[in-house]
Amino acid sequence: MKDKQEKRGLNRRDFMKISAAALTGCMLGQTPGLGSLVFGQPLAPGQFDREVVSCCQFCQVRCTTKVQVKDGRAINVYGHPDNSWTGGGMCPKGKSMVELTYSPHRLLHPMVRRGEKWEQIPYSEALELITDKMNKVKAEFPEEYEHRVALFAPLWESRESELAAETTMHLAGFSDICSPGDGCIGNSATTLSICLGSAVSPTTLDEILNAEVAVLFGANIAEIYPPYVRWLVAAREKGVRIIYLDPRRTPTSNFCDVHLRPRPGTDGALVMGLLQHLIANNLYDQEYVASKVNGFDMVAEAVRPYTVEKVAEITGLTKESIQDLAQVWGRSKRILSWMGASLSRYTNSMQTVQAIIALQAITNNLVGQGKGLMNVQGGKPGGDDEFSKKYRVPDLAPGLSFRKMLANMERNYVRVVLLNSSFRRYPDSDRVRKALEGVDFVVYRGFFMTEEAKVSHLIVPGTLTFESDGSQYGAQRQVVWRQQAVVAPGEAVPDWRFYLDLGRKLCGETYPAVNSAAEIYELMRETSPSWKGLSLERVKASASGVIWPCFKPEGADGRGSLYPEGKFLTSSGKVELNIKALGPLAWSEPKGSPFVKEAGSEGFPLVFSQGKVVQHWQHTFTEWSGFMAQFSEGNFVQVHPETAARLNLSDLDPAWLETELGRIQVRTKVTEDVLPGVIWTPSYPDPASPFAGNKGQSINSIIPGYWDKVSAQFNGFGCRLTKITG
Length: 726
Description:
CATH topology of the largest domain: Rossmann fold
Low-confidence stretches: 1-33, 393-399
Mean pLDDT: 90
Structural class: alpha/beta
Radius of gyration: 25 Å
Helix content: 25-40%
Number of strands: 26
């Protein structure tokens, strides 16, 4: 067993090391004043042939790494010690890539479905088949083919893959590109864009060291972004007060001075109560509001009813804790707020993010040292380039959303789908599966025989992290470069190569004359003013990445505030709070909440919540790691002792977790980490995984399809838990 674990590049002692660091704050470091949460160590000289600088593709930390190679195989990966954001840290998800690269379960050659069987075909034949299917759509529907081919956009390979895919679709005449953001952080990104003029994080993480107070709105850093724990520790050592708002007690709680636990989906009501207190007591910056904020009067009127008493009733917090938090905002001069992805996962989330922007704005905490907003993801930099105008369409064409694409598939309008991300990332995922099963031709770009592969007609396998190069953008707006470390097995090809090859077959000489990820990067950079300073040489030379925007080759990058001169990227140059698209500031219960008395709601009295764990990401990668399965428990729910007693449930009891869509079997974990009346369940179980710990029913199969203007809801609705007897 030990030998097998070492071949996977990970051992149980390593895993326990990161777990201990995340839970107790044991910081091992090379960067003065910060330390590092270290997971994975370099092999000694002589044990490997060469090292290659790479980058983890999982989350927006974008940990730069060093891959150690021997005899043409990646045998170890560890965090780049010169990365100033991570201090050489990384999390177990990145470490799992050694095992996943050489997994016996990987798909290595294109395969086409022939009846009930799969037949291996050459890559060249797969390209011809896809080209033929897409051209036939044009021939059959010469006047209305544009929306009959759809793309679920690439999510994890590289920025160049996104650009190549969008270029191919646009030049071939197909505009339906479904961004992964509408199942992720679309709400917060859209609201930031509307109110401030850009969807990316308005500041960078290092400003937390200059703050008086840092407020984490559902940002579970220790589990989602473990290498960033070092920043929380360093900030506290400098005297920064860290306040954590999260219904659940998590490892992040250990790094905070105050942990307030509002009921899921009520952050917006809490923030409106804070606004009400500040405005009613003149504890806001009236001069800044007059010169930099549009829509203050609307905000003042909207928050008037949100008294401390009302907010306490809604959130479940005490009046004293709400008043204390309001006083913190009233007297502190430098507050940095960090918005977790969970904020985007409610039908009231755009209003919540709008309220947080208003709170930071009226207290003059949007721009300056120790101030600003962090979004849990950095978002895509760019948008000011001629490349976009000439070769690409936006992620979502006007009027298009995932819901419209789903409707088009259900009425048999869509004939070809390029499936480049998991359909299980959407709520009511069984409905999405059924719609895909009705499409004439589905092409899956993946790595394992997942649920996506099973609904497809053609599989064209992709490369994993070590097998291709390309750029990635991260939470600090940093751009990093990943170098190819090993040769891809079989006929696996990176997304950028696949879409270049397909684009040339569809478009001929009209397709841009680029032949590598580096050439795609440079083509985009050369036409973008805000990317001029992000030359490939400069990006490659930096272990930490170069921060967008960066206008000059030798100039400073965009570290710190995105709006250093206090001018926002809106048409007025001010913070815009009164916007027709968002409507007046308001708060409402999440759709389907058991706190809204509607027909049928009494049957689902518990509040549903779900999220990620430290060892898993999304639905299609780490679930195929046998080592990670040892630390995973399939489908389970956390439930408070008071709730468990009411339902006659004990620890480890089997139970049915049920929503209006259906039910799945779970094991009960009784814990005070969740609030009474609330359940929490992990999002990782994969029905196709070959490993028991990772295997389970997709949680999104029972999540109702509730949406707001932009994104889907994954939390806050009603559910029930019933003990399985007999």
